[in-house]
Amino acid sequence: MSSTSHAYRRNTLWNAALVHRLSGIGLAIFLPIHFLALGLALSGAAKLEGFLRLTQMPVVTAAETILIFLLVVHFLGGLRLLALENGPWFSGQRRVALVAIGVAAVVALIFLVRLL
Amino acid sequence: MLLVPMILVHLAVIFYATSQNLTADAILSRTRGSVTWGLFYGIFVLLAAIHASIGVRNILQEWGRLRDRTAGQLAVLFGVLLLVLGLRAVAAVVMP
Amino acid sequence: MDESHSSIDVSIWRGDANGGFQSYRVPSRSDQTVLDVVTWVQRNVDPTLSYRFACRVGMCGSCAMTVNGRPRWTCRTHVKSVFQESKLEIAPLSNMPVIKDLASDMRVFFEKWTRARGSFAPNRSRTKAVEEIRPDTPARRFADEAIECINCGVCYAACDTVRWNEDYLGPAALNRAWALMNDVRDTAGRERLEAVSAKGGCHSCHSHQSCQAHCPQTLNPTRSIAGLKGLSLQAYLRGEIKP
Ligand code: SF4
Ligand code: SF4
Ligand code: FES
User: Fold this and answer.
1) Range of the domain at C130
2) What ipTM goes with this model?
């Protein structure tokens, strides 16, 4: 309709839901690849080793960092939803969601720094 | 909800493996023949496959605008694929 | 007073779903509501402009529209509180078919109330004495928090699950079901749980809380739906309802 027709989505919690969904999609795409890579061990440790060496490449390290972020953000976001739907209601959802995203970013950064 | 502690363990494993800069041999020597790791990751894979296929079905319905049946079938297919690949990977890593 | 302060430019949706925005210049008044603006246009510029309202004091729930992209009750929305970049854009409520101009078709919205068993099933007839309900019981408190709904459809228009899943009952109908589940005088609990557990029911909700963020009555449908999810799961585990 117009530029403002989705203004109702300019809302922390709506974006938290979006982040949750996108991170879920990201993880769903990554999982089969992850499994295939580990499956390399079937044909011997050497194959897996070759693959692991690949992971030293900066591009792959960056991708791994993003994956860690996706996993942690999906995990914490999911925890928030579990608490919200099953526990007694608590306010300050916005802050909890933001903290979840922040923590995920920090964990991913720690991961990155330790690899470098 | 079982996924919660398992993800924590998995994250710990990731951080451990990368911090020690483990080689494939080193990893495999730790995992091969271990029933505990086999069980843990076997269940983890199963739960992840179920969780992912439910999520994928919802997304296919809502964003993909697929009919419920089609979305359900695709999601089951995806879940089975994850399960097979995942269990194969676990087997590859823990079987002696 | 200079021109720019004494009048505002407003875009109003005209026509059906294929219509478009049309601009109008409306005199600006202090404490003017969005509904006042629409009414001014209809009385002074174009009497064919269609829209809905009744009480003008936030009780009837008939005046909801999309104001600058957000669903709102227009009779209680001051122009100055929503004027963004000196723009005011008024459209019909979304997630419903447009009938004409600012009036959208709320039939499906109300049909879903019926589908969610939003009607009270009393446990005694009028000849019996009124049942006493203590105000401090948990069920009464839950019902209290959910009961002030004015059926305005704002939450329904703000809910993306409604947008993406046409079967979804939506926040208002489910919130109503939750209020009745906590009414000890009601006798249709099992049937209602069955209705809200079916496809498109409470389990389709993703807890976005957009409904809560927009409800003009500051109700919390997300929490109500979470309550239904819990009841539904318990009933399923007890074997009272089937998946
Ligand atoms: S919490 Fe549920 S009802 Fe409310 S906007 Fe989100 S999906 Fe819709
Ligand atoms: S729950 Fe709130 S937004 Fe939804 S119909 Fe009722 S009063 Fe309107
Ligand atoms: S006109 Fe009745 S609620 Fe706005």
Assistant:
1) 107-237
2) 0.78
